[in-house]
Amino acid sequence: MARPRVAIFSNPGPIPHRNCDHPGCEASGEHRAPRSRATLDSFYWFCLDHVRAYNASWNYYAGMSTDEMEAEIRNDTVWQRPTWPLGARVSALHAARWAGFGMFDIDGETPSEKPKRPPRSPQEKALALFDLVPPLTLAGLKARYKELVKRHHPDTHGGDKEAEERLKDIIQAYSLLKAAYFPT
Ligand SMILES: [Zn+2]
């Protein structure tokens, strides 16, 4: 879906110094943006980053009254409180709306940013392959081993190469688990 074009509102002339209207932003507000389509003579003053974000979200705000829009912008301040779990508070809509503009640290919200699980150890892999959870019993391990060998034996798969590889994994996992849990 094509995004409607949005204009960047900026003021080229000299302006009295003032801070960006985005709550909590300390940068100077050098770029103006109309508060609403209805009152194009009333402006917010934003820093470059925030005027860009504001313009980008113009379509979102366009349908709101000035009061609603201001309430929305005030809400943004709340989201910036670092002690609040942002992911829990920000709706998917807002996340999508702001994420592209680097305004909020949404680390932990995008799946790629999630801390990766450390690679599994051979022992963990073996347990997963055997579908077992410690504590193990020797009898239980042996029974499971027998079952898996039976199921994956190449003879029952017409000498299938994959079954053979699978069987090797099972044998390896078995000796690993046996050595780890039932050392002799
Ligand atoms: Zn700003």
Could you characterize what this model shows?
By secondary structure, the chain is mostly helical. It has 2 domains: 31-113, no CATH class; 122-181, Orthogonal Bundle (Helix Hairpins). 46% of the residues lie in helices and 4% in strands. The protein is built from 8 helices and 2 strands, in the order ββαααααααα. It has a two-stranded antiparallel ribbon. α7 (138-152) runs antiparallel to α8. The radius of gyration is 30 Å and the shape is rod-shaped. The protein starts with 30 loop residues before the first strand and ends with a helix. The structure holds zinc ion (ZN).
Secondary-structure topology with pairs:
Layout: E1 31-34, E2 43-46, H1 48-56, H2 58-62, H3 66-79, H4 86-89, H5 92-99, H6 122-130, H7 138-152, H8 161-181
Residues 20, 22, 25, 27, 46-47, 49-50 line the site of zinc ion.
Q: Enumerate the strands of the largest sheet in spatial order, edge to edge or round the barrel.
A: 1-2
> What does the radius of gyration come to?
30 Å
Contiguous low-pLDDT stretches (5 residues minimum) are 80-114
* Percent helix range: 40-55%
Mean pLDDT equals 70
Order of helices and strands: EEHHHHHHHH
End-to-end separation: 66 Å
Question: How would you characterize the largest beta sheet?
Answer: 2 strands, antiparallel
Instruction: Tally the beta strands.
Output: 2
Label the structural class.
mainly alpha
Listed once per kind, the bound small molecules are: zinc ion
> What count of structural domains?
2
Coarse morphology? rod-shaped
Strand content: under 5%
Tally the helices: 8
